[in-house]
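Below is our example:
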Amino acid sequence: QVQLVESGGGFVQPGGSLRLSCAASGFTLRSYCMSWYRQVPGKERELVAAISAGGTRFYADSVKGRFTVSRDNADNTVYLEMNSLKPEDTAVYHCAKARLSYTFTVTIGQYDYWGQGTHVTVSS
């Protein structure tokens, strides 16, 4: 079955960096758009970045220039490189798989599988 397992979260000071990984299994990663979302308790889940099957990228304005999404289809892994981290980046970060193959989407309802998430805390 489809599984998405995030890792790489942790505690970091403002201005620091983290690299999140999402290990995918149970489907052909190269055929699907993948995204990273984040959620803070009491707030709606927010799209951070998306990468299409062909490598097209989308970023939320709040992370543009600081975060980079990438994928290694051979290794079945999606990454989120986060630099210049700010306290407002503190959240649980989830990776997600698009419902339809070869479809680029940034609509949360178009994702059908989610990982459990990895916690990121940015604080001095």
